Amino acid sequence: MNTQRLMNTAKALVADDKGLLAMDESNPTCNRRFAKLGIPQTEEMHRTYRELIVTTPGLSESISGAILYDETIRQRKNDGTPFATSLADAGIIPGIKVDTGAKDLAGHSGEKITEGLDGLRDRLAEYSQMGARFAKWRAVIAIGEGIPTRGCIEANANALARYAALCQEAGLVPVVEPEVVMDGGHTIERCCEVTEEVQRTVFSQLYKQGVMLEGVILKPNMVLPGSTCPKQETVEEVADATVRCLLRSVPAAVPGIAFLSGGQSAELASARLNAMNVRFKARLPWALAFSFARAIQQPALEIWRGQEANALAAQRALCHRAKCNRAARRGEYNAGMEDYLHAKQVGVLCQ
Description:
- The protein is an alpha/beta fold.
- The protein has a single domain, classed as TIM Barrel, CATH 3.20.20.70.
- Helix content is 46%, strand content 14%.
- The strands form 2 sheets. The protein has an 8-stranded parallel beta barrel, surrounded by 8 helices. The protein has a two-stranded antiparallel sheet with strand order 4-5.
- The radius of gyration is 19 Å and the shape is globular.
- It starts with a helix and ends in a 6-residue tail after the last helix.
- The mean pLDDT is 95.
């Protein structure tokens, strides 16, 4: 294991106020999003959309790394260049989603376990040969009556730790994603309690599996009230609860925390990340970054709608959202940036 290379890659993923673009949607998820917009659900249309993303001018000004899906890392631009190579040439580190999805956990009604450990060592070696320098694995933890159970938390934490150890063995930085999902009517206090328990358990398992924390990126949920909870806290209250939870559960050795958006709107995800950095950035042991999918991609997808004539406008929207989140890392994001014309006037959009 090349520890220095792992540490350098992990630091690079959260350097210069940049963040990660998650473009690792599974084919069924991608097809559902395409169907809503009337876009043909074909492999070639997947490829065309992803080429639009990887060829967006100026994207590397805000994006340090891109998480790809198995289909995507095997695809190429029209000129034959592999997407991973195109990203690397643009200064964006290629990464790869390696779990095979969350499945029902036997004996635990309403709970999930993420699978994909079988054959992972060989798959990681193949992805490394394709140019990947980091990987991602997502665990799903739901809050409800009587859940999550310790059995579910420990099973997912152990799987995340085993995945992370295999990644580092293969020379890839593991992005560890224990997501406490926002579905439900739970309070922000309950989310904080569960998130802290989950993260403490994950780091205990990482330690037991010999994972070097300096070569890990944590991809957690923000601490939020459930989506149907009557009380929805302010942006500042979410920022305070999230950072308080992280300080209690995430070791200082971890170089960066890249939040998932988890169903938040693009604007709220940016505003909440911004509030954390405004209020706490100067006194935190780790960088607070982003690893967003829909919260960066969705506006561009809605503009593109499978039409080549819309490609340039879609790329500008993609770059705009990425730059909004870089601004949030700096504590410089504001609602005025969401005015597309204003953003163009002040130079937030890529040209």
